[in-house]
Amino acid sequence: MIIISKRRRGELKLVKSTYALGLVETIGFPAMIAAADAASKAADVKITSYQGADAGIVTIYIVGDVSSVQSAVFVGEEAAKK
């Protein structure tokens, strides 16, 4: 992912970012809380937000480095299945 940041007087600087985004979809809010809790405790990641959709489907967004996001998504998925 490349982020463009403004410097002074119209100069642009490209900044390389190494963040990964992981998503966990659950059915119901309690399952989302359990998945987010387990994912945040499993690895060095940040739960940035959640988004609700129709029929009770809730998605959480997990940000961090690639390996941490992969393990957090796996742990969050397992917690949501319970």
Q: Quick summary of this structure?
A:
37% of the residues lie in helices and 40% in strands.
Record keyword descriptors for this entry.
Alpha-Beta Plaits, three-stranded antiparallel β-sheet, alpha+beta, two-stranded antiparallel sheet
CATH domain class: Alpha Beta
Q: Please give the domain count.
A: 1
Largest sheet: 3 strands, antiparallel
Q: What's the number of extended β-strand segments?
A: 5
Major sheet: arrangement of strands: 3-5-4
What's the Cα radius of gyration? 16 Å
Order of helices and strands: EEEHEEH
Low-pLDDT segments, ≥5 res: none
| Name of the CATH superfamily | BMC (bacterial microcompartment) domain
First CA to last CA: what distance? 34 Å
User: What is the correct CATH architecture?
Assistant: 2-Layer Sandwich
How much strand content do the residues show?
35-45%
CATH topology: Alpha-Beta Plaits
Write up this protein.
The chain has helices at 29-42, 66-81, and strands spanning 2-6, 12-16, 20-27, 46-52, 57-64. It has 82 residues and is of the alpha+beta class. The protein has a single domain (19-81), classed as 2-Layer Sandwich (Alpha-Beta Plaits). It has a 3-stranded antiparallel β-sheet with strand order 3-5-4, covered by helices on one side. Helix 1 runs antiparallel to helix 2 (66-81). The longest helix is centred in the last third of the chain and has 16 residues, at 66-81. The chain is globular and about 45 Å long. The relative contact order is 0.24. The mean pLDDT is 84.
Secondary structure topology:
Elements: E1 2-6, E2 12-16, E3 20-27, H1 29-42, E4 46-52, E5 57-64, H2 66-81
Antiparallel strand pairs: 1-2, 3-5, 4-5
Helix pairs in contact: 1-2
